[in-house]
């Protein structure tokens, strides 16, 4: 049975090698990559719920389940952060972007500027590192009443965030709306490269913070969170637009596409060769290997501990196989974009497949020697680590690539995982 555990561990992880080969030699479309990743997330959520959580609860009770999930989530999150900080960030496009933000050369801005920008709507949901990066690039300015901040028909060079004061928006000599503290303006012209669509005039003394065109593009490339926030702002404004509904929707789709294109890692690296060199120099192959293995230890452990249980042969194993493919595809593609040699990428993922078999064998022997309470806690810890991995890497990456439409793929994956669990159980 130990051999069976080894084979099952490698089988579940074999899709990592397949995904890596696709990521290295092909360039799949963003929507396809996002859909596969979301589908795999759904199947793994179902497998975690019905093949780990429910079975641990039936055999060991709620306490080992709660304790194990908490331990697994905390361990995975902290170990993953530690590995990223010590050179393993390159294994994920999202972690590479985060690393760029946290280690960019600009000096950190003073807390006072962050405080002044804290109520700006599009910044409120951003991670602290991204807020600091944006705040370090803005230029403060003040405006007097009746001062024209931007004029309809003129080229747009700046994006503005209002800290204090009010301004009126005028189009075709008619007042459209009043802008208040926390709101933004000027982003549409920068995104579309078209002239200003309206005139903005200060109504009161104003305190504003502006980003020039170059810094605005830099921020968008590195902050998918800001891209999503701007997309929501655009949608809300279009609901009050004087344009027709069809024209407004077409504009929204076009702007959203431009926003999502801005945050691609390959665009950032292509336009900034120094960033490429910096990423490769600061990454550590051993840390990348350990970080990648960390993502797969929980799954392989559960496979090994249940190698003798026939009901897991198709349900959990299939869920792991499906979810591993998009994870490797995304990671291998990101590593290739950052300049990692193809042979090194493939060697990494094929090595992970073999190591997953070894870990599954360890799980098999643990299941034979440990108490029921310990087995339940270890399985639950694996489940917590799996959920932590999904919530911190796969699902955010899928959303960044495909937008809200990936929810349908996630639902489909969950239903397939549920169906397999019910049939095999």
UniProtKB/TrEMBL annotation:
Any one Gene Ontology molecular-function term assigned to this protein's record:
DNA-binding transcription factor activity
Keyword annotations of the record: Kinase, Membrane, Transferase, Transmembrane, Transmembrane helix
Q: Which SMART domains match?
A: cNMP
InterPro entries named in the record: cNMP-bd_CS (IPR018488), cNMP-bd_dom (IPR000595), cNMP-bd_dom_sf (IPR018490), Env_Response_Regulators (IPR050397), RmlC-like_jellyroll (IPR014710)
Q: Name one GO cellular component term.
A: cytosol
Pfam families given for it?
A: cNMP_binding (PF00027)
Q: Describe the location of the Cyclic nucleotide-binding domain by residue ranges.
A: 122-237
- Locate the transmembrane regions by residue number: 6-26, 31-50, 62-83, 345-366, 372-394, 406-424
Q: Which PANTHER family match?
A: CRP FAMILY TRANSCRIPTIONAL REGULATORY PROTEIN (PTHR24567), HTH-TYPE TRANSCRIPTIONAL REGULATOR ARCR (PTHR24567:SF74)
Instruction: Please state what the protein is called.
Output: cAMP protein kinase regulatory chain
Native organism is Crocosphaera chwakensis CCY0110
């Amino acid at each position: 049975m130990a051999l069976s555990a080894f084979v099952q561990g490698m089988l579940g992880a074999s899709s990592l090698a397949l995904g890596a080969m696709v990521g290295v030699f092909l360039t799949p479309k963003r929507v396809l990559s996002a859909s596969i990743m979301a589908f795999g997330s759904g199947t793994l959520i179902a497998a975690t719920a019905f093949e780990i959580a429910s079975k641990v609860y039936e055999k060991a009770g709620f306490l080992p389940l709660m304790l194990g999930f908490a331990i697994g989530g905390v361990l995975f999150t902290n170990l993953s952060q530690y590995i990223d900080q010590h050179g393993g960030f390159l294994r994920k496009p999202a972690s590479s972007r985060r690393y760029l933000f946290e280690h960019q050369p600009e000096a950190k801005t003073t807390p006072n500027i962050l405080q002044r920008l804290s109520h700006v709507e599009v910044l409120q949901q951003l991670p602290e590192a991204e807020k600091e990066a944006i705040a370090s690039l803005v230029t403060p300015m003040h405006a007097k009443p009746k001062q024209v901040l931007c004029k309809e028909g003129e080229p747009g060079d700046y994006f503005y965030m209002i800290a204090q004061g009010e301004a009126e928006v005028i189009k075709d000599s008619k007042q459209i709306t009043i802008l208040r503290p926390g709101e933004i303006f000027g982003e549409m012209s920068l995104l579309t490269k078209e002239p200003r669509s309206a005139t903005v005039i200060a109504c009161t003394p104003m305190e504003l913070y502006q980003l020039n065109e170059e810094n605005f593009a830099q921020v968008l490339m590195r902050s998918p969170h800001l891209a999503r926030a701007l997309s929501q702002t655009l949608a809300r404004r279009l609901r009050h637009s004087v344009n027709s509904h069809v024209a407004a929707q077409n504009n929204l789709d076009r702007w959203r596409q431009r926003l999502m294109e801005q945050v691609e890692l390959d665009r950032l690296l292509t336009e900034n060769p120094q960033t490429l060199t910096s990423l490769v120099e600061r990454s550590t192959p051993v840390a990348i290997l350990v970080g990648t293995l960390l993502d797969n230890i929980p799954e392989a452990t559960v496979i090994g501990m249940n190698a003798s249980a026939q009901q897991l042969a198709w349900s959990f194993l299939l869920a792991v196989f499906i979810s591993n493919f998009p994870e490797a595809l995304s990671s291998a593609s990101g590593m290739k974009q950052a300049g990692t040699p193809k042979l090194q990428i493939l060697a990494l993922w094929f090595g992970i497949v073999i190591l997953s078999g070894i870990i599954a064998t360890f799980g098999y022997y643990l299941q034979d020697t440990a108490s029921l309470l310990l087995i339940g806690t270890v399985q639950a810890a694996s489940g917590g680590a799996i959920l932590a991995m999904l919530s911190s890497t796969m699902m955010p990456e899928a959303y960044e690539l495909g937008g809200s439409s990936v929810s349908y793929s996630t639902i489909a994956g969950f239903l397939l995982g549920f169906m397999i669990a019910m049939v095999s159980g």
